[in-house]
Amino acid sequence: MKRTFLGEFEELVLLTVAVLEEDAYGVSVTQELEKKTGRIVGFSTVHTTLQRLEEKGYLSSRMGGATAERGGRRKRYFIVTAFGRKALREAKQVREDLWSALSPAALQLMGS
Amino acid sequence: MGRKSHTSDPRPPRWAGKLLSIFADPRAEEEIAGDLLELHAYWSKTGSRASANRRYIWNVLKLMRPFAIRKQSNDYPKTYSLTPAMIRNHFTIAIRNFFKSRGYSFINVSGLAVGMSCAILIFLAVRHETSYDLYQSRIHRIYRVETENIKENHTYPGTYTGMTNALHTDMPEVETVVPLLKFSDKTMAVGDNRFRESFIFADNNLFKTFDYQWVSGNPANALAQPNTIVLTRKYAEKYFGKTDVIGKTVRLDNKQDLTVAGVVEDYPSATSFPFDMLVSFPTLKNVNPDFDQNRWNGWNDNFQVFVLLKKGIRPEQLAGRFAAIVEKYIGKGEGEHKRFKFSHLSNIHYSGNLGGRSANVSLLKTLSFIGLLVLLIACFNFINLSTAQAFRRAKEVGIRKAIGSNRKSLVFQFLTEAALITSFAAVGAVVLSVIALPSLANALAIPLTTADLFTWETALFSAVLLVVTTLLAGVYPALRLSGMAPIWTLKSNATQQTSQWVSMRQGLVVVQFTVSLVLISCAMLINRQLDFFRHADLGFDQSAIITVGLPDNTPEKLHAFRDQLLRSPQIRDASFSFNSASAESNWMQSMEYRKGPEVVQVKTQMKMGDSHFLDTYGIKMLAGEPLKDSDTTDFKVIVNEIVLARLGITHPAQAIGERLYFGDGDQFAVIKGVAKNFNVNSLHQKIDPTIIQVVPNNYYQVGVKLQSERPNAASVQTALAHIEKAWTAAFPDQVFEYNFLDETLAQAYQSETRTAKLIEVATFFAVLIACMGLFGLATFTAEQRTKEIGVRKVLGASVASIIGLLSKDFLKLVMIAFLIASPIAWYAMSLWLQNFEFRIQIAWWMFLSAGVLMTLIAVLTVGFQSVKAARLDPVKSLRSE
Known about the structure:
The complex is a heterodimer.
Chain A: H1 8-20, H2 26-37, H3 43-56, E1 59-63, E2 76-80, H4 82-100, H5 104-109
Antiparallel strand pairs in A: 1-2
Helix pairs in contact in A: 1-2, 1-3, 1-4, 2-3
Chain B: H1 4-7, H2 14-23, H3 29-46, H4 49-63, H5 84-100, H6 102-130, E1 142-149, E2 154-156, H7 163-170, E3 174-190, E4 193-202, H8 205-209, E5 214-217, E6 228-232, H9 233-240, E7 249-252, E8 256-264, E9 277-280, H10 284-287, E10 303-309, H11 319-330, E11 338-344, H12 361-388, H13 390-402, H14 407-444, H15 450-453, H16 456-482, H17 486-490, H18 499-535, E12 545-549, H19 555-566, E13 571-577, E14 587-595, E15 598-608, H20 613-617, E16 621-624, E17 636-640, H21 641-647, H22 652-655, E18 659-662, E19 667-675, E20 690-693, E21 701-706, H23 713-730, E22 738-740, H24 741-746, H25 750-784, H26 786-794, H27 799-833, H28 844-871, H29 874-879
Parallel strand pairs in B: 4-9, 6-8, 15-20, 17-19
Antiparallel strand pairs in B: 1-2, 1-10, 1-11, 3-4, 3-7, 3-10, 5-8, 6-9, 7-8, 12-21, 12-22, 13-21, 14-15, 16-19, 17-20, 18-19
């Protein structure tokens, strides 16, 4: 199967959804990302990314129940699909392979 | 921290939320809006409100997906129901169904044809009545001067003869002034041919104001000189047999020769100015030297003044001019009693006019309403019969739906069927209209011809009517039939229907019968009132009296004429008088009775007649002596009981010798006798206080009483021949015309007679259509319950009980209709009867008899089918299962 390219921001969003487990929706993903990365993340960017990830098949979504807050509007909850988990694992594998290919001197230079 | 945003619930700008709901991707709009609201609350908590709003707006703008909506696609392809093949199929099915149930189709088509024909005919009548004078090219500037009596709150179409000159001098805003004076019953002679005609005095301003097409002659001066006349083409041909008649003469009343100065084209039928003969106004001085052309005390509706206002002048601007005219010519302070106003040319047809025909607006309204009801009854038939037959079509609908037909295409199919039936009906309606038009035109006295039927306006109206009728009749059944659930239509025992359908059908039947019953009751009551008119005791004798006009009332001539008349054994008596004992046009005069210091004003009607007046008309005396022909000099008069009541005199004998003052207050008349009341007016009005006086120079007709009360045709012929001989001997060179008094009096009720006739016809059709519908429903019920009736008969039910079973349901509906209809009819009729001072009393049994009649008709209609069904051999009905 042809491997789909996972962008850096996409990877972050996908990971965050995985981290949040059952509670991943637009707002929680945005806030979690801001908290973890410390940079300002635009909601619209997150939303678009979530949609794109769903289109690509990494995420699936369902509508939640009606809530009393947020004007009674429902939330769209995302969960990572099996394909998404595989993509995350592959991305991690690529990084680990590259890290392990680093020479000890270079590793020391990075301060770890 | 501690800022306002904490305490109050922060809300994002509303416009941004709106923007989002319009332009966001519709599939994600809900969650985006929710998420953004939540974030906004979060941002306001952590930062300033302004920055929260800013971030909110920024995100909204970035999330707008204006083109996302278009990308939506349906999961299933659409089926198009309006393909040519489907439409062809609809027609095939419609025609098959039409011929399959021929009986019901016949009921529908004939009912709708009658209904639509009513609508078309009434449209023609209304269009004709509303199109009067609209062809005049200067219509927007033409007005009539009308005279209002403020105290009586009545506006008269005529005005003072002085108005012509007053307008010329005191109202510079008028471009032309057109005085018109109508003379009736004059003799016109060309050689030895004499005709009795009415004609108009007019001047050249008539042609500057109204449109005339000239065959020959000069519009600029045709009516400028005295003794000239302008004829229409029709009259030129009638008198001379050709139109090239300039310079020929017509002799008016054997006195004055008139020279033909022009010939104009015939007028269209929708005109308030149907004048065939126009005589120049200056001729009036030669013909009638006594006619005062500057009179300001008293007016006549035969003299009317039209004006053409200058461009840009509004009639309202001229109220001040009129007020000044009243002050100047009638007198100071007269503005309280009299007022002049302009009435636009387009309104002339709705009030009294010189053409003699005015629109009967209330009759037209009633007629339109009834026509609509007849059409509605026919539509109800269609609705009832279609929904009743629903079960026949249920399987078809079920299968169509099962193989993928949608509701819209089914609705279209059923509407096609309705349209087909309505189209057949429309063809029938045109045929019916052609047949019925002459008698309708006659009944309404509207000059309509078949040519009026074939105009583009009528075609357009018929097309609209076709569409409206189709929708009215077709929409409900189409929605009902197409709304059936396929599951129960396809079950084998799906004959029962929801109860709501039945009640709708019953409701429509009740409406049909209510309308029929109201019409029947009204027709019965109107006829009773007309009957009352015919047989009411008028206080005088109207039978066997012949009236003939008098062209000349010099005493010697009349004397000789009477002697001649009384020679015939057929003639009992003859009386010269102003008019008959009861007449349409009357002479009213104010009288004063001085009782000590008290003055009683009585507006009395003057009956001027000779000493034979009371005997000829059979008027009875209560006290005093009858009139003598010599009573002219000392003003001895006879009064009726009403006068006594007004004067406060209780006993007729006490009134003898009392004085009634008139004129400027010095002259008086002495009461010589008291007559029993008689109807001086038609029965629409109260009996006026009446004075009978001998005034020989106001004798305009002779009333001839025949010897026998009920003369046969032969004796009437002999008497008429004798009268004509005596009359021609007295008045040579005149045209002899006569009337029977009872016929003349009956004309006062012409409008009511017309209404009665039209309502009778409408009632007949309404009942006929309603009964056809009922017959259809009864047939259908009988068919549907064939098996049930078979079983009942096998179990021992009698024929009578089965007839009762089948008829009961329908009779119940007639009863309900009766309960609704009676109050409506009662109300309508009591309103109508208010037009008459003398009228019948409405009694409950009148409605009951209408109800019994309707029930009888319904029983006959339903009974035929019920008896047929009840007598059917159960072996036949139960044999096949």
